[in-house]
Amino acid sequence: MAIQSEFNKLATDITECHKCTRLVKWREKVSIEKRASYASETYWGKPIAGFGDIRAKILVLGLAPGAHGANRTGRIFTGDRSGDWLFRAMHKAGLASQPESISRNDGLKLKNAWVSTAVRCVPPDNKPTPNERKSCSKFLTRELELLSHVKVIICLGSFSLTSVCDELEIRPRPKFGHGVVVNHEKYKIVCSYHPSQQNTFTGKLTEKMFDSVFKTAVKLAR
After folding, report:
1. Which listed residue, 5, 120, 125, 141, has the most CB atoms within 10 A of its CB?
2. What number of other Cβ atoms are within 10 A of residue 49's Cβ?
3. How far apart are CA 191 and CA 58, in angstroms?
4. Would you call 118 helix, strand, or coil by DSSP?
5. Could you tell me which of 142, 148, 158 has the C-alpha nearest to residue 61?
6. CATH number, residue 120
7. What is the model's pLDDT at position 64?
8. CA distance 196 to 66
9. How many domains are there within the chain?
10. How many angstroms separate the CA atoms of 73 and 45, rounded?
11. Mean pLDDT, 10 residues at a time, over the chain (222 residues)?
């Protein structure tokens, strides 16, 4: 299948990227030093490609891989608390085959959804620079070209919204807010707080709020 080959090529190009020196050094440093609880594991330590249903109507876009989540497991939003929140909500919305994402080989399948990030390498302090985001933007461009069925983009956090607005040349840039829906000539863009511990532990983002975002996205994608 030609389209699958194109997705495979994109994934290869992403995982082999060494363009951003700061990010390369950091992702490899994290992979060597590791977190004590994962000391016996071999970290992925490379850029992370998106994954899911290649005929998806919904694209979920995060900020960047987690240091001890995706940077460890090799699959985005896998092996950390942000992923726990994300896939619970996606499973409830009928977009994921199971409510958790533990490893690349855990059997998780996405239906009508694709999950990705604006920046493909884990950044120090979870803060990519504007130039790093710009360097990664070519991958989002190719991803959107391949995901020809996408109607809705869920932006997890303001950084993701900025990336999408730059990609789609949306000006003026809309103000980010949880639950805000931005109308584009091709897409509906749904904004959500990122399911990071900073937001979920403090109650800034609740399960009810997060579920509402996916309920809206599913409705808009019909």
Report:
1. 120
2. 21
3. 13
4. coil
5. 158
6. 3.40.470.10
7. 98
8. 10
9. 1
10. 9
11. 92 98 98 97 98 98 98 98 98 98 97 98 96 97 98 98 98 97 98 98 98 98 97
